[in-house]
TrEMBL record:
It comes from Phyllobacterium phragmitis. Signal peptide: none annotated. Coiled coil: none annotated. SMART domains: Lactamase_B (SM00849). The keyword Nucleus does not apply. It comes from the Bacteria. Keywords: Hydrolase. This is MBL fold metallo-hydrolase. InterPro entries: MBL, Metallo-B-lactamas, RibonucZ/Hydroxyglut_hydro. Residues 13-217 form the Metallo-beta-lactamase domain. One of its GO terms (molecular function) is hydrolase activity. PANTHER family: CLEAVAGE AND POLYADENYLATION SPECIFICITY FACTOR FAMILY MEMBER, INTEGRATOR COMPLEX SUBUNIT 11.
Length: 385
């Protein structure tokens, strides 16, 4: 088996992994890199390799995992496309926000082109089997385990082993683990960060803005709200669709459904509410947040950012200039989670994706078999590992 690192290695964004096994060539995710321009916006894979792909498997509908799909089609990809029903439902909006218009117009994501699977399914491509499991990151989000020639590679995509909302299925033992290292060696738990966010909200009783991705972190924030809150009215249907019992922890469905029913609907043009307001997306580049963040700043309405802030985004600019606060709400593994996942997988050789090289170096003492010598554009052959 040959593994191609097409995006997300030594960097955050454009996550994409290729696997070659015998006659089968597949791609796991095709994301974009927020803040990049030109060719660096998309996975580093050439057109010939794109045309040779048998299939694309998409882990979830966040931009750094699916945002390059229409671009991939524009470069000649004609293979099969696999994703869960939830990912398919959310992908068009992500593509609309992060894809290029010429690609979207010429290569829209059609239902007839997508093969739907459920987490836990195994897809057999003939000589290459792809097992799946719930990621704990978003509703419908999955990890992938590719097995062929007596070898197994596990790609975690984005996982959350200690989510307060979502279920994560254990990763299987493997010969190579491609692990979500988004936070490097950050030791602070999700429970501690949730408490800090609750305290910050309580310190701003007259209202505040919390930009958030539409899927995943929105539910995590709803679960920890210390009191009443509002949502952008356009988010309600998408949030309701994420309340699937087979994706959520026991008790989370009823809690979140109750909180969503009690949440106020806020619409643009209305006064900002005197309670916490959730709007999407989390970086302020797209969706209602792109409009609401400047409005909140102009009115001295407090802003709390809780996720990744790529350079060049409004969120990054606000935080850098001291115009917004930031408390990371973990939607990726922190240090203890990374160590546990690696140990449970049999302590195999491991590659960290979605993480800068300096942060990977800090993580290596805790994961002794972590490779820090590979970056986007490199390949690894399991027979030589």
């Amino acid at each position: 088996m040959r593994i191609g690192l097409h995006g997300g290695f030594g960097e955050k964004g454009r996550t994409s992994i290729g696997i070659e096994a015998g006659e089968r060539h597949i791609l796991l995710d095709a994301g974009i890199k927020v803040g990049a321009t030109g060719r660096d916006y998309y996975p580093l894979i050439d057109d010939a390799a794109i045309r040779a792909l048998d299939a694309l498997f998409v882990s979830h509908a966040h931009e750094d995992h699916v945002g390059g799909l229409s671009w991939l089609l524009s470069r000649g990809f004609r293979g099969r496309i696999f994703m869960t029903a939830e990912t398919f439902a959310e992908s068009p909006e992500t593509l609309a926000h992060y894809g290029e218009r010429e690609h979207l117009d010429a290569f829209p994501l059609a239902a007839s082109a997508v093969e739907i699977f459920a987490p836990g399914d195994v897809i057999d491509l003939g000589g290459l089997k792809i097992a799946t499991g719930r990621s704990g990151h978003v509703a419908g989000g999955v990890w992938f385990a590719a097995e062929a020639e007596g070898r197994r590679v596990v790609y975690s995509a984005d996982v959350v082993p200690d989510s307060n909302v979502f279920v994560m299925d254990p990763l299987p033992r493997c010969d190579l683990l491609v692990l979500d290292a988004s936070y490097g060696a950050d030791p602070v738990s999700g429970k501690e960060r949730a408490a800090a966010i609750q305290e910050w909200i309580e310190m701003h009783p007259d209202g505040c803005l919390l930009p958030t991705p539409l899927s995943g972190r929105s539910l995590e924030l709803m679960a920890i709200m210390p009191g009443c809150f509002a949502i952008h009215a356009g988010m309600r249907a998408a949030l309701e669709a994420q309340l699937a019992p087979d994706m959520l922890l026991l008790g989370a469905v009823s809690l979140l459904r109750q909180r969503l029913q009690q949440a106020e609907d806020w619409r643009e043009g209305e006064p900002l509410p005197s309670c916490p307001l959730l709007t999407d997306d989390g970086m302020g580049r797209a969706g209602p947040s792109a409009t609401v963040i400047p409005l909140a700043y102009a009115q001295n309405y407090p802003i709390l950012l809780t996720g990744h802030l790529p350079e060049g985004t409004p969120g990054h600019a606000l935080y850098s200039q001291g115009r917004a606060d930031w408390i990371r709400l973990p939607t990726h593994p922190t240090l203890s989670g990374l160590v546990d996942i690696w140990s449970d997988a049999g302590k195999p050789p491991v590659l960290g994706h979605s993480c800068a090289l300096d942060a990977l170096d800090e993580l290596r003492p805790y994961l002794p078999r972590l490779r820090t010598d590979l970056i986007t554009g490199d390949f690894i052959d399991l027979k030589d590992d």
